[in-house]
Amino acid sequence: MDASKPVKKIKDAVEKAVTPGDRIPGSPGSGTPSLAEPTTPIEPLPPKSEQDAPETVTPTGAETGAPKVSKSQQGAYLTTSQGARLRDTDHSLKAGTRGPTLLQDHHFREKISHFDHERIPERVVHARGAGAHGTFTAYGTASEITKAGFLAKGKETQVFVRFSTVLGSRGSADTVRDTRGFATKFYTDEGTFDLIGNNIPVFFIQDAIKFPDIIHAGKWHPDREIPQAQSAHDTFWDFVSLHTEAQHHTIWNMSDRGIPRSYRHMEGFGVHTFRLINEAGETVLAKFHWKPKLGVHSLDWEEAQLAGGVDPDFHRRDLYDSIEAGAFPEWELGLQVFPDTEDETFAGIDLLDPTKIVPEELAPVQPVGKLVLNGVPTNFHAEVEQVAFVLGHLPPGIDVTNDPLLQGRLFSYLDTQLTRLGGPNHSQIPINRPHAPVNDMLRDGFHQHAVHGGVAPYRPNSLDGGNPSTTDTGFLDIPVRVAESTKVRENPVSFDDHFSQVRLFWRSMSPVEKEHIIRAYTFELAKCYEQAIKERQVQCLANIDPVLCEQVATGLGLPVPKPTVPFDDAEVEASPVLSQVGGEWPADGRLIGIVVDPAAGLDGVEEVRTAIFAAGMVPLVIAPHGGVVDGVTVQRTFATARSIEFDAILLAGAPAPAPDALPARDAKAGTPSSPAVDPRVTLLVEEAWRHAKAIGAWGAGVTVLEQTGIAGTPGVVAADAGATALTELQALLAKHRVWQRFPATVA
Ligand code: HDE
């Protein structure tokens, strides 16, 4: 990261965010006259055709360039959709001031009717999401194995990425326990490449035909449409306990991977094995991985639940705030590469089985390029809602394998857009337009935007000069031999192993991560009503690990069953790279809350803020009330600050209870008490401590540590000066959490 620029941008963004009035002409202190409406007419909008002209590429042409800039709301005069200027848009046309509205009011009808149709169907899965623009730059390291041009050394390609949860509706909370989608559209010169992955490297099912089953089980119950965005209910556990190939994906969901800290802190996986081909016609098999620059980090479960209520947009906000602040999210794209052997296995692992990983210790992930997200959407609907990822969008050099899950997805993604985006011309929507020249012979249909010339959209033709023609440099379906076989509805025998890699995952976890997994299973199953379902899942756990099974069964008050699938310990090794604990990572964009006490003054606070900005992080000052205190702008008040927002807390004072604080109670006496520190500050600190966050204090702030009883515990820093407290806090943040604070009852 460029050392100076992002810091300044972060600072600017924070300053802007705290005084939004400054950005609104006419608001107090903005320096502009107070106006209800703009009075200086600016140039009227250009004709609609020009407003809509694709500045990137035409549906049939090759003009690439800067992304289209919307001109909405910039012209002086309000018009109808047809460009007729309007005198009034606030009153409908009526038969007298007290009379009924007239059907004749065409402006009213256009306005209301368009509004009535503003929504489109949400995605059948992955409905809730957020998207961003960025650039992918290739290292050139993949050029020997694939001829895909966007992977050639130094090549820069524009991308659009959409992150999502799977189960919830569009308005559901970001921080639920779920798989996350990580879909990337590369606008390559050779045609669009959509890499549609998840943050979990395996899937619930091995065959696409079962997708409706797992999704019907995971989504809400059909009678009452509850629960929303949850796997903690009977139908989900009914399915995964009966359908044991789902157990691998399920343990990833129950681990901390199911509740990411942010989209910036997630890995991404293409899941399936793909086949790559180089210029010489040689092929390899490969799996795609995204590795985040900031490491893989998660929320604490209680923190995730609180965030669901306090800030349901937690992940969206983090993505957009970090981009606007200049702390651009970054990932490296990497490949695991395997020889293209006839049996399509590697180290005994069937590469066509999407419920299996290949441990990175056996096949290291080789970096092939870098993704930087540096642009927020201009319009959520136009871009994030209308982006259509389609698995068959492949450039020359990348092809599919016979993975039966992948094969089914090749149908579903194109098909679903017909309903969602209303017809077959969704590739002409600006966000979906390829940046490569398009010269197809697809014609007509709903929402056709192109005015195609010519008379012969067919081949062969002589009337349009025989154009367009095909070329040997085009997309190549790699001529893989398909074994002579009989039509069957069966899986290969190798797909029958449903437990060895679940055991591998469990054994790769650190004690604290195992503890979290135990708690997650216990929580989710305790939310089920059917005893038989709980027992069946506990039986599955017996086939994964005796300690896991025993602890969950105890938590549920159930007997501990014996395994029914034999353990072959020799085959099961750990993959340490799967653990999130250990290692140190950049803390870019982390949020540090600074609690101040205006009554005692803000000594040292400004210096600490400057040092936090300089470290690429974001300080947010928390005070009893808003405004400016001792020259320092307050960003959060005790009423608006909740622990979930902050990665660490610094206490610069010990503020006494403010008048608007809820009365605290002396728990033993049951009577109101008069605490020395505002109870909202105490709650903030207690929650941050419980969620294993770093906490520092200096000066009077140290007394808060004492009063909450956390002084001297791991990850709690009492210092003489703010600078010292911050330095120690930074060292703790690099490890993400103060892991020692979580109880570790399993080895
Ligand atoms: Fe998807 N999936 N999926 N999926 N999927 C969709 O396509 C489907 C699967 C993934 O941000 C849908 O445009 C089937 C695996 C992401 O717009 C739909 C099967 C993986 C997104 C669909 C799978 C994914 C989707 C719904 C089993 C990880 C969000 C809306 C064969 C590798 C894309 C849409 C976005 C979305 C079908 C399994 C990832 C219905 C049939 C495995 C990230 O087409």
UniProtKB/TrEMBL annotation:
UniProt KW Metal-binding keyword: yes
A single MF term (Gene Ontology): catalase activity
Cofactor(s) this protein requires: heme
E.C. number: 1.11.1.6
Enzyme class of the recorded protein, top EC level: oxidoreductase
Pfam families: Catalase, Catalase-rel, Catalase_C
CDD domains membership: GATase1_catalase
Keywords of this entry: Heme, Hydrogen peroxide, Iron, Metal-binding, Oxidoreductase, Peroxidase
InterPro entries: Catalase, Catalase_AS, Catalase_clade2, Catalase_clade2_helical, Catalase_core, Catalase_haem_BS, Catalase_immune_responsive, Catalase_large_C
Domain Catalase core: 79-467
Bilayer-spanning residue ranges: none
Residue ranges, compositional bias (Polar residues): 70-83
Record field: catalytic activity: 2 H2O2 = O2 + 2 H2O
Positions of region (Disordered): 1-99
Role played: Decomposes hydrogen peroxide into water and oxygen; serves to protect cells from the toxic effects of hydrogen peroxide.
Family: Belongs to the catalase family. HPII subfamily.
Name recorded for this polypeptide: Catalase
Organism of derivation: Paractinoplanes pyxinae
Organism lineage string: Bacteria, Bacillati, Actinomycetota, Actinomycetes, Micromonosporales
